[in-house]
Every structure is written in C-alpha cells, then in structure tokens.
C-alpha cells in the first residue's frame, strides 16, 4: 500500500491537533507544513505538534511546500480566503481538505467560489472538500443518513450544547470572555458573528433530502449566560462577569414552515450550570419519528479533528471536483484508511 503524503496548512490549535493525529497514522506521512508566523518558520513540524522530530521544516508560504497527495487547511472560516490557498494547491494536483465552515457546502452561499474550486479540482484530477464536526457531520451528514429510516421526512430539529474550552483563535467570533456591554459593541461592529456554517449545514441537508427551500434565516448570536466565577480553557480564561456561553440559531423555511430548525449553545460549561453539553436530533417522518440523544454531547474539538483526519485519506481516492461529505462513501470515512489498504492490496 502506498503511504499518503500529507501537507499541513495552518498550525493553530486545531491544525496542530489534526497534524498530531495524522502523524500517528500508519497509512500517512507528513511531508510538509506551512504557517506564516515567523517563530514557526524553519522549526521541525514534529516539535510544533509535540510528537518529536519528523525531519520536516515549517515554511512560511504554501508555494514552498513539497509535493503531497493531500493538504489539510486549517486557517479560516471564510471560503473566499481558503480558495486563494486551495486553488494553487489544486493546480499542483494536490487534493485539499479544509475545516473552513463555508467550504462544507458553498454552492448555496458562495456559488462563484464553488465554481472556481470545482473547475480547478477537475482540471487537475483532484478533489477539494470542506468538513468538520459541524458543518460536515453532526448537523448535515449524520441526520441525512438517519433520514433513511423513514420514507418521507417532514422536518428536522437539531439542538446542540457544545463545549468550546479546547479552542483558541476561533473563540473571538463567539464573544466568549466579553462583558455584556463589550459583547453588544462587538456584535454591532461585526467582530462577534457567532457560528459560521449554518447556511452550509442547512443547504447540505436540504439538498440531500431533495428539498427546495424558500429561504434560510440565521438569527443574531446572543448571550446565553454570564459566569460568576473564573473558567479556564486550554487557550483562554473567562473572568467573572463575562459571557461564558452564547446561543445561535437558524432555520430553513419552505411554505412558511420550519423544515430545518437548528440551534447551538457554545460555551465553557461547569457541572453546576443549567445548560450542559449534549446533542439531540429529531427527524419527523410520515411513518415514524427518528430521534437520537447524546447525553454528554459530541465533543466538538475532538470530533472536528477525527472527521478531518478520516476525510483527508478518503478524499485521495474520491472523484475529482468540489465535494461535500455526502459525496464520500460512508465506509471510506469510517474505515480510517482500512478500506484503502484493502483495495490497494487486491
């Protein structure tokens, strides 16, 4: 079996965690890493990942990356910026997987960027995919798969309460750690925007179900509660009197009905809080209602790492073009390289 050559683009907290995961896989080998921070350039990426030397130095520009089978991009939530990184890699016949939320299903929200990425990928016989825990799996691909248990779906309702204490840079867009006054000002200035990816998750789920929605409504993000004690995460501490959780919701509408209803509470949670981590999904069908509840919730950070790592190896063997998670065979993702090992051995 040929080993998949992996390049890492972006070595923030999430990028490092994905890289650490990939370094432990027997079917993968990290051959390159890029990050513009001066303090990382020239450093052995293994030291950055905390896994020991790998003999691969971090470069400051993706143009300096060596040839690879797949690049994993963990830089930004915005697809236009990721496209500027992805297209030159695709033109070098490198498959691209990114945890950019807007890339998970960009045909609805960013059709021009989607067309640009699709053309670049197909022209060079490679694939490009946006994925992660959400969007990518929990609010789109997973309910789409569960919907096969009923013959006609009438509505989908998903509720998430997810712990964010492992994250770093992306926390700024949620406004965690701000006072209510600071939160209001930052929201008005556009610095706090909440979750990026609602449109993509709803459009992906509707597309898979064959629904033509009239519109997608994304509510403003708002505080859920303020902490009265200090809460410490991996990269950020929340002081008393600051916002410890925010609530964000969106709906897919058709004929005045809520066909898809999504809500997430993002926060740093403690056992004494009324709101605790957890996930629920209810699919209302004609003959039955399918409902699952994850009492402690899907751990968002770890789930994002796992989905990205598993999808990265699956993409290498996927059809060319811009893909969504629904385009990949379930077994190619779930087998964690095992399916590829079997097919290569035959």
UniProtKB/TrEMBL annotation:
Residues 4-80 form the Dihydrodipicolinate reductase N-terminal domain. Residues 137-332 form the 2,4-diaminopentanoate dehydrogenase C-terminal domain. The keyword Oxidoreductase applies. Keywords: NADP, Oxidoreductase. Pfam families: DAP_DH_C (PF19328), DapB_N (PF01113). This is Dihydrodipicolinate reductase. It comes from Mycolicibacterium frederiksbergense. The lineage of its organism: Bacteria, Bacillati, Actinomycetota, Actinomycetes, Mycobacteriales.
